[in-house]
Amino acid sequence: MRTTAPAARVLIVDDEYYFRQLLIHLIDWTSAGFEVVAEAEDGSEALRIMEEQPVDLIITDIEMPNMNGLDFVKAVRALDSAAKLIFITSYDNFTYAQQAISLGADHYLLKPVDEEAVEQALNTIRAQLQEKWEEERYINRLRIEAGYGGQPAADQTSEDGGRQGSGKRLIHKAAAYVTAHYAEDTLSLQSTASALFVNPSYLSHVFKKETNESFVEYVTNIRLGKAMELLRQGAAAEDASVPKVATIAHQVGYRDPFYFSKCFKKKYGITPNKVYGGTYSGKY
């Protein structure tokens, strides 16, 4: 192991404050090659922390309030995070263990915590991270030598934990989901978050941060933009069978044509009927 390798960044997630403190002070993290950068009492708080900083290793309980450990890790995986994972829990439950393994858990340990078991798990994970970082450096060096440019090496960037940029990846997934489902009047922040396995409040927070507009504003703009396209196509068509305004409203996810017209006029300063009737020639 190279002495110049960076310390792997650890996030501890457990609703028991004293257990978090026990774990922090029980292990010689520096000697193990790790650094505890943050702690959280539930999954929701942990996701907010991960939005602000990269993480290489997550140590989490399962049974916690607001968002339990399994749902939290599902949300982390939906972000394409490659963070290593250790579950430390009081529940010797086969179903829990199965779910943990399906989520890519590296270790499943039981409370009361065994110091030796944790240290062995950390040693294994540290070796895996070191191997990963060395491979990334090697590939990066080959890319540079081949003239393709390269990404910063693992000890020069916070990308190692897979968290940096994951907010943008989540937004790309959310945008793709909206594009595929904007015509459904049931589309909502909640339904999108559920499809992406993330907490709705977390998705709302990331969406606003990355796009500078709310999820609702984004969906509205997508729907009205598509409506403008359909209305102008209808205005240019000579076919009498082209969709009417009310039909177009339904096609872009509005159940109520009058509400659709109100939203449309607010955005474009003109009613849908005028666009459809061919009296609108402005840009949009």
UniProtKB/TrEMBL annotation:
GO biological process assignments: phosphorelay signal transduction system
Modified positions (4-aspartylphosphate) in chain numbering: D61
InterPro entries from the UniProt entry: CheY-like_superfamily, Homeodomain-like_sf, HptR, HTH_AraC, Sig_transdc_resp-reg_receiver, Tscrpt_reg_AraC-type_HTH
HTH araC/xylS-type domain residues: 172-278
Localization terms from the record: Cytoplasm
Lineage: superkingdom: Bacteria
Keywords: Cytoplasm, DNA-binding, Phosphoprotein, Transcription, Transcription regulation, Two-component regulatory system
UniProt KW Transcription regulation keyword: yes
GO CC terms in record: cytoplasm
CDD domains membership: REC_YesN-like (cd17536)
GO molecular function, one term: sequence-specific DNA binding
All residue ranges annotated as the Response regulatory domain in the record: 9-126
Official protein name in the record: AraC family transcriptional regulator
Naturally occurring in which organism (per UniProt): Paenibacillus graminis
